[in-house]
Amino acid sequence: MWVGDGGNFPGQISFSNSLSRYIDSMKKIYTKLPEDWNIYLEHKPYEPAFYSTVISDWGASYICAKELGERALCLVDLGHHLPNTNIEMIVSRLIDLNKLGGFHFNDSKFGDDDLDAGSINPYELFLIFIHDPDCSNFLKTSPYKSWVTTLDFIFFLLYTFMTDKLLLTAF
Q1: What is the pLDDT of residues 23-60, one digit of tens each?
Q2: SS3 for 134?
Q3: Which of 76, 72, 69 is nearest to 91 (CA)?
Q4: Relative to the CA of 75, which of 13, 22, 59, 117 has its CA 20 to 30 Å away?
């Protein structure tokens, strides 16, 4: 769930009150969910507001998911991070905290956060899904496991193409 929220200039909203209202509202939604449903919280550093958003980063998303309960998880949109953010570390931390719920496969450049995944920085995908053993294990034991082999093969081809080397690995 991504809530379009925030303020466009200082003083427009109360940071504390907006987070409290968000958590209170989400608790009402969470309690009404069917037992076999999860809710996925998605952070975004800006948009639609440009000065502040309530769930602006993975830490705020994690705090809210923890407040809500076991079936509230964090969704990592690969395009919703500020430049130079270490996304693979975020993924690893959320796995360690049992709060990684899934991914939105996007990329971003100059504020456009809905570009095709890997179109700007394909190496980032390699770091997240292949290099990070926590994420590789998560994918192999999660609902994503049916396409992990396909991702492995795609990254194998991508690595081979980018480096002109044949990477010998066991899938």
Answers
A1: 999 999 999 999 988 898 988 887 778 888 899 999 99
A2: helix
A3: 76
A4: 13
The rounded distance, in Å, linking the Cα atoms of 60 and 74 is: 10
Return the residue matching tokens 């480096």. 163
- pLDDT, tens only, 90-140: 988 998 899 988 887 777 777 666 777 777 777 787 777 766 666 766 666
Paired tokens of 106: 């996007």
What are the C-alpha distances in Å from 105 to residues 79, 108, 119, 163? Answer: 8, 10, 11, 23
The CA distance from 137 to 158, in Å, is 21
Query: Do 122 and 154 form a contact (C-beta atoms < 8 A)?
Result: no
